[in-house]
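Treating backbone geometry as a discrete language has practical consequences that deserve illustration. No coordinates are needed to read the tokens, only the vocabulary itself. For completeness, the protein is quoted in full, as a sequence line and a line of structure tokens:
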Amino acid sequence: MIGSRIRERRVMAGMKQADLARAAGISASYLNLIEHNRRRIGGKTLNQLADVLKVPAGQLAEGAEAALVDALTQAAKTAVEGDTAETDRVEEFAGRFPGWAQLVAQLARERSDLTRAVNALTDRIAHDPELATSLHEVISTVTAIRSTASILAGGALEPQWQSRFHRNINEDSERLATEAEALVRYLEGAPGAEMAVRTPLEQVHAFMAAHDHHFSELEGAGGSARVASIVNRSDVLVDDTARRIANALLLQYVQDARALPMRDMEGWLRDIGADVIQTAPGQLPQTLADLTGQPLAAVARRLASLPEDMVGPVGLFICDGTGRMMFQKPVLGLDLIRPAATCHHWPIYEVLAHPGQVVERRVQQGDVRVLTLAMSQELRAATVSRPAERHAHMLILPDAAAQDQRDGAIWPVGASCPSCTMGLCDAG
């Protein structure tokens, strides 16, 4: 493609092939072969052509910035159904019209941000207990004022009753004003597109995400002693419940780091090989479990805590025995699993009903296709007087099969049943 980029730049500059060849000190026939990608080019000749065309040599050699090309390709994938974009010419577009390409990529990012904001608002309206309580209080107070006003408007009352109803309306009006003001403050408290952190679990998710789910201070000896300090100095964890949840998660992190130390993980991953990690990621967790003798759930947690440049993108979801989501690390553009009325196609719920089973399933949410591996971990065995306590884990890995377009069973999943757009579904 170097020759094609040279030709595009020459045409954009309004130069003839012979003029460019002469200015660069090469023959026109040689330049013709270069422009048709029939001759390799590099070094001195490439620099001479770049100087004449007044572009960086790297731009001719590598084309448009890879991130911009990736952004344009992703924008084409998320386009409205019926729209068509020439994805095979995206690099050409980015190279010839870099300004327009940047604008298209920016608009695509803004559209994606707005979509996430709408989803967050929809989810908050449907499931946020604080918002539901506030709206209930406003409606109840309005109803009380209306009832009192209808009594006053219904006919003559004795002075003492009339005074009492007026006092009730005054008190209810003051309460309504206070509740409405609090509701407005709550709704306006999130100027960002991602919505403000509100619930304790949301605070914990933001806290973990801010550290990329990796805490180097907790690796090695003495990690437990540093947990409280990390939690207490966080600006995101604003209430005691959130701090308690974060503290428990970090103590579990320390326990997993002791069982599967960072240095040993690096060695094991090196022995397994990057090829397996990239082309058959589904084999990685079980291979590590066999090598280390650790439970598959512990391996899943540890993989999700490693830096991405070490093991690639790894997501993790954990729920308790009731299906209540306790931990989320979404990756690869997946939506968060909603706290209520979530999609039952996620395999994490299947292993709760079948504790000894490990479920591997390819799932797709919108345009995102991933490989999931779900397993359960028993925390406390059942006795005559109490049931067993277990957590379900679901590891999220890139789907290697999607890269070469192999056919296979793919389960569509949504984020929340009440607002799902998947169409026909056996969940109703």
Strands lie at 315-319, 325-329, 359-365, 368-380, 389-398, 411-412.
